[in-house]
Design goal:
The chain is 62% helix and 4% strand. With 469 residues, it is mainly α. Strands 1-2 form a two-stranded antiparallel sheet. α3 (31-47) packs antiparallel against α4 (53-72) and α6 (109-145) packs antiparallel against α7 (165-190). The protein is elongated. The chain starts with 14 loop residues before the first helix and ends with a helix.
Amino acid sequence: MKSLWSGRFEKEMDSAVKEFNASINVCRRLYREDIRGSIAHVTMLAKQGIVSEKEKDDIIGGLKNIQKKIESGEIVFTVDDEDIHMGIERRLTAEIGETGKKLHTARSRNDQCQIDMRLYLKKEISDIINRLTYLEEIILKKAETYADSITVGFTHLQHAQPITIGFMFMAYFQMFKRDIERLQDTYERMDMSPLGSCALAGTTLPIDRQMTAQLLGFSAPTENAMDSVSDRDYCLEFLSDASISMMHLSRWAEEFVWWNSQEFSYIEIDDSYCTGSSIMPQKKNPDMAELIRGKVGRVYGDLMQLLTVMKGTPLAYNKDFQEDKESLFDAVDTWKVSINIFADMLKKTTFRMDQIEKHLSRGFLNATDIAEHLVKNDIPFREAHAIVGKMVKACEKKGFGLEELSDEELRRIDCRLSRDILGDISIKACVNARMSFGGTSPREVRRQIEAGVEWFEQLIEDERRQEER
């Protein structure tokens, strides 16, 4: 079968080369976007008098019929189609005759593939934002449930300070909030239509790029035709967004793995999100968390693959750019399923407060609070830090907590110390006292939750208005 571009060639493409050159097995998922872009393009061509109204209607009718046949399975693409653009155009001509050959007027596959990719990514960004929104809704509900529940805060994986579980939830809420905002920024930057840029330099035909941009829901046409067909920075930006967000999922998944271990036993993951061992009948493995932790490597690889493809490509279009889709599609698929699995696993996970309380007495979690209390008694912080360090050392030798030191033992460490000066240094009192903006006190956590709910409700409202437009 001859290619649609084979006019100046005397030989058929070698079969191995044909298979190597084809991208149809990857890009066929863009058929909806390709047909949508073609309908907008031919609508504009008719308005500009480049094709007749009858020709426009025939082409649109043919394209819609082809879409039905693709979705019903009647059309099966092969390497002879080369890519989705050629595959659809070839069948259009077979469907409606010579008029089908007019569809490609004033466009190139270079701008055609770009309009398809931007339409696809706009749709997927909206979908991923919806999935992240679902995750954020779960986080807010969990944060409220555990706003007063105290757990261990870590640095260097060592006991550091007491915090509330709700506080920890709101930390991740902020991470995923930024993930959503990054996607919104990416969407705004890529919301420009490249259709009509043609191969690299535009066209001599009297097209209306503003019209096709409007028909396809873009804010405006791209400014420079050469840039439009020769860069993939919007794909790279999306892959960067995906990598950062997957990293956030991976970090929390890592915590799920060790919270689930016998050494911690902080959480109970629902059985439906765990697996067993093929040899050890007692095992309940956090495999979903481990898989999410592992899948971030795929998305990192997708970003690096496309960065590497793009790094040495001169203006304008190069065949290397055909390699942009597989990594992008993989990142989309991996990110979407990871968000959903993690969100549902989180929803069905409970914290074992009885087990967590056993850990609160370890690691001198109230040490920093004591140092700050001494500061309130006019002892310079660095001096207070050294005093509390000596208190910790004394407790380690005796095997008890800071709150158990007697007045006599305290005076031996520093003559200014007494139980009265230390005041209430219980774990609960330490948590309740951390009322600084962004702190872990239950009252401050609830303020953070209220701010999160306000942002969440505004996000939902903005999405509703976007859908109406």
